[in-house]
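Quick start: what a row looks like.
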Amino acid sequence: MNPLRWSFRAQFLAGFLVCAGLLGYAIYMQIEQGLVPCPLCIYQRIAFAALGVVFLLGALHGPPSRGGRASYGVLALLAAAVGAGIAGRHVYVQLLPKELGSSCGPPLSFLAETMGPLEVFRTVLTGTGDCGNIDWTFLGMSMPMWSLFWFVVLGLGALYAGLRARKTRLF
């Protein structure tokens, strides 16, 4: 069965399940394997959660109109683009040489206690703690690299699902 020919609802439900699986794996790695997430990891999790919510809402709603489906596709693409931007920044920080300061600052809990929300967001994205460490790899790619891959795949998949021409039913 070709997933590119699935219904809009099935494609968006699959997107939700992928997001839930990725978040579940990240939480498993944190709790069972002891990998403590850095601030950029936390922001990637938030982006996956937001993307998963858009996928779930689209799957539950299943809009009959092409415009409705396109709206969900574009919303999911936007959420995925934000996540890809964050993951891309994380990959950049990881690939910087250590002597150039490839870190992202103090823990997010400390920042939240000492700064306002906009300043916390700006500080985390400037890349100043342990975001430069590569603690886990699979097939030669770190977790942020895999996150970037999945954000791109899910974003393009959502856009395809939202914009794909559907066969009209007569009955």
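That is the whole record. The longest strand covers residues 137-138. The radius of gyration is 18 Å.
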